[in-house]
What does this fold into?
Amino acid sequence: MDFKSLRFTIFCVNNVAIYLGKSSKEVYHLMQDADLINDYIVPCYDVLHTFSKEYIVDDLISIMRRKGVVS
It folds into this structure.
């Protein structure tokens, strides 16, 4: 993971945490359980970082729901 991907991952975790009202640490672990970081956020960085914050948060939460890590 390069520095840009790391910063973007932190951005994603923090904004999803704010939206869900959970700690960043908890959301990070939920995303790890759903394989979102290494299988989605980092590989798709080039495309994902071009979208709005709202779109990214909605997209990530939707995937987390489908994977059963949040309700």
